[in-house]
């Protein structure tokens, strides 16, 4: 018993396992609700809610019509996906006794986080989804816009990684000669108890939703909780999947995400054919590419994407507060720019919704999707190998020089 | 408690979020003389996994297993 508790709470889970589970759950969620695991649409709606709160007239903003801004975040299933993810992550952080207020030593990080958050929020909504709806849950819907988004995010992240390496951006760490004492350990451990209470309250809320007939809210809250638990326990970071490949040749997160998407794609096509559901397709246009590239750049600047930000904030990493605020500002600004600044006319209007299921049929769609994911996997391995080769040459040279 | 190790340098990265713990650690190790010992203290949960993995992938050796100290981790790595 003790060892299983240790396994669940003291160690982070294998990213492959976590992402396969997330892929299965998101296909299941689609089967049950006909909607996908997504978060930034709700961020835009939250921005709309805040504008309404301040008495801004947003009735003529087309974007809010498009994302169905109705009611409040508490009676939207997408809202409960977001709050459920926060809750799930927080509960796991507390149960594992790993909450701590973490203030960045480098003050510049706050500015970087806010600006990066704004760019990422703007880019994600321009592309009509972040790494979930336009990536992890977009590819399994066979929406071609996800393919454009992936390429564009890769490019944006590449430039973000370059920026991260510059001296003025990364700052200098505090390097001390000799030893420093680590923080004194606290004797009393209360976090797991607080986590347990929050978990009990939250489960009570889910039961209330189901008992009172609000099935969609209950499902949103339940799946949100599960997604939050998974991303926190697996430390699932879409930002690092791309960025760390460029920075340090780290490939595990990218590989795990690709495998998760492959599993989700297979399950989703089964769900679609059994229940005769319509996959969710977004417009593929220039806006998808521009939005993806901005998103890629923004998430590296902010050190976290829309989902990574959520569990990191729950861990007590204060840096991600300005990132969250930035995400909402960016998403809301895009909603404004959509029709008021001509974004729709310039970047979106000429695009069309392309779904691979319609154009290629089920066999064609799943085959080409798996082929594309296989290609991405091969590229990831290639990137990793290339980095290691360069590293070996560099180390060889330094040994030779000394 | 682990045996006290005398580090030549200490990187105090408490508060820094990923990817900076990895970047700082690798850069500092690169700048040190071979055989010197670096102590790294981090509290970004992502770094508990990626700092040791990346240090090893880049060819560095650990003086001992990483030590979990409450919500922080302490690493001892030879340059």
Could you describe the 3D structure shown?
- The complex is a heterodimer of chains A (402) and B (79).
- Chain A is mostly helical.
- Helix content of chain A is 72%, strand content 2%.
- The longest helix of chain A is centred in the last third of the chain and has 46 residues, at 356-401.
- With 79 residues, chain B is of the alpha+beta class.
- Chain B contains two helices and five strands.
- Chain B is globular and about 30 Å long.
- Chain A binds chain B through residues 12, 97-100, 102-106, 109, 164-165, 170, 173-180, 182-183, 185-186, 235, 237, 240, 243-244, 247-250, 303-304, 312, 315, 317, 319-320, 388, 391, 395, 402, and chain B through 6-20, 22-24, 26, 28, 34, 39, 41, 43-46, 48-50, 53-54, 57-59, 69-72, 74.
- Strand 1 of chain A pairs antiparallel with strand 1 (9-13) of chain B, so a sheet runs across the interface.
Brief overview:
The complex is a heterodimer of chains A (402) and B (79). Chain A contains 18 helices and 3 strands.
Strand order, largest beta sheet of chain A: 2-3
Number of helices of chain A: 18
| CA-atom Rg of chain A in angstroms | 22 Å
Approximate shape of chain A: globular
DSSP strand content of chain B: 25-35%
- Number of DSSP helical runs of chain B: 2
Share of helix of chain B, binned: 25-40%
Low-confidence regions of chain B: none
Rounded to the nearest angstrom, the distance between the terminal CA atoms of chain B is 24 Å
Order of helices and strands of chain A: HHHHHHHHHEHHHHEHHHHEH
Unreliable stretches of chain A (pLDDT < 50, length at least 5) are: none
Greatest contact between two chains: A-B, 46 and 40 residues
Present the secondary structure layout.
The complex is a heterodimer of chains A (402) and B (79).
Chain A: H1 2-10, H2 15-33, H3 40-53, H4 62-66, H5 77-95, H6 108-126, H7 132-136, H8 145-165, H9 167-170, E1 174-177, H10 191-211, H11 215-234, H12 238-248, H13 252-275, E2 283-284, H14 286-302, H15 306-314, H16 320-340, H17 343-348, E3 352-353, H18 356-401
Chain B: E1 9-13, H1 20-31, E2 37-42, H2 45-57, E3 61-62, E4 67-69, E5 72-78
Parallel strand pairs in B: 1-2
Antiparallel strand pairs in B: 2-5, 3-5, 4-5
Helix pairs in contact in B: 1-2
């Amino acid at each position: 018993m003790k060892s299983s508790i240790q396994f669940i709470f003291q160690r982070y889970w294998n990213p492959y396992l976590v992402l396969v589970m997330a892929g299965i759950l998101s296909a299941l969620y689609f089967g049950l609700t006909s909607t996908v695991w997504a978060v930034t649409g709700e961020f835009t709606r939250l921005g709309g809610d805040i504008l309404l709160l301040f008495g801004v007239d947003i009735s003529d903003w087309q974007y809010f019509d498009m994302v169905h801004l109705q009611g409040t975040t508490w009676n939207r299933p997408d809202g409960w996906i977001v709050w459920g993810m926060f809750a799930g992550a927080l509960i796991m952080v507390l149960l594992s006794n790993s909450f701590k207020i973490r203030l960045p030593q480098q003050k510049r990080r706050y500015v970087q986080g806010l600006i990066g958050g704004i760019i990422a929020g703007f880019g994600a909504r321009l592309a009509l989804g972040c790494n979930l709806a336009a990536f992890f849950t977009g590819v399994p819907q066979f929406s071609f816009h996800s393919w454009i988004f992936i390429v564009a995010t890769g490019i944006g992240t590449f430039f973000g990684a370059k920026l991260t390496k510059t001296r003025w951006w990364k700052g200098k760490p505090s390097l001390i000669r000799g030893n420093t004492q680590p923080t004194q350990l606290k004797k009393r451990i209360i976090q797991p108890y607080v986590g347990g209470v929050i978990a009990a309250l939250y489960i009570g809320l889910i039961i209330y939703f189901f008992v009172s007939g609000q099935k969609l809210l209950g499902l949103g809250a339940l799946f949100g909780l599960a997604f939050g638990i998974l991303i926190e326990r697996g430390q699932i970071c879409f930002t690092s999947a791309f960025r760390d490949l460029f920075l340090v040749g780290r490939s595990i997160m990218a590989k795990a995400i690709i495998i998760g998407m492959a599993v989700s794609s297979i399950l989703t096509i089964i769900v679609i054919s059994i229940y005769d559901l319509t996959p969710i397709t977004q417009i593929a246009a220039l806006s998808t590419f521009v939005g993806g590239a901005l998103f890629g750049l923004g998430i590296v600047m902010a050190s976290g994407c829309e989902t990574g930000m959520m569990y990191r904030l729950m861990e007590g990493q204060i840096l991600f507060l300005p990132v969250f605020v930035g995400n909402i500002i960016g998403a809301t600004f895009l909603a404004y720019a959509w029709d008021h600044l001509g974004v729709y006319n310039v970047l979106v209007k000429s695009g069309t919704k392309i779904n691979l299921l319609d154009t290629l049929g089920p066999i064609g769609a799943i085959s080409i999707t798996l082929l594309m994911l296989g290609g991405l996997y091969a590229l990831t391995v290639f990137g990793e190998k290339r980095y290691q080769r360069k590293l070996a040459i560099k180390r060889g040279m330094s040994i030779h020089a000394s | 408690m682990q045996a006290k190790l005398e580090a030549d340098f200490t990187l105090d990265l408490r508060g820094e979020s990923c990817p900076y713990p990895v970047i700082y650690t690798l850069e500092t190790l690169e700048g040190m003389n071979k055989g010197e010992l670096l102590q790294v203290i981090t509290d970004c949960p992502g770094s508990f996994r990626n700092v040791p993995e990346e240090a090893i992938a880049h060819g560095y050796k650990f003086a001992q297993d990483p030590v979990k100290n409450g919500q922080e981790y302490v690493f001892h790595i030879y340059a």
